[in-house]
Amino acid sequence: MNNNEKAIDVLQELNQFVNDRIEGYEHAAKLTKDPAHQSYYKDLVNQSRQFSSEINSTLSSIGGSTEKGTTAKGKIYRGWMDVKNTVTGRDEESLVKSNIYGEEWAQKAYNDALEHKAELPPQVVQMVEKQKQSSLATCERLRQMENAAD
């Protein structure tokens, strides 16, 4: 497998997680009763769409096909969230906790991608690291929102 093939592989997988992130925050924006949270989740949807766009244009530039799908695990998780919200009554704290879980999962996806750093073109590594930093900042903000909900 040459470096472009490895980069394509890593980016397509990463983009499935980013697409999960889009769907997850769209879902959260619909479920929340807090207007400030809703606005933040919508910002995160836009940020995630930007991430996906960056990944897809990089994929195109190195000869890969773009990735529009989500992970099977993400679909299962969102289904579980629906059931849990029906049972627990959609309280803000559990919604924020779910988003923290999703963001921690995104961190793992970014870390997995960066494990192949040596095999990836420098611009790919830079993009992945930049997105990972944004995801870390989101995680921090969500933890603050969770503490405020306590």
UniProtKB/TrEMBL annotation:
Q: Where is the DUF2383 domain?
A: 7-115
**Cross-referenced Pfam families, in alphabetical order?**
DUF2383
Q: Which Gene3D superfamilies match?
A: 1.20.1260.10
- Protein name, per record: PA2169 family four-helix-bundle protein
Q: Which organism is it from?
A: Pontibacter mangrovi
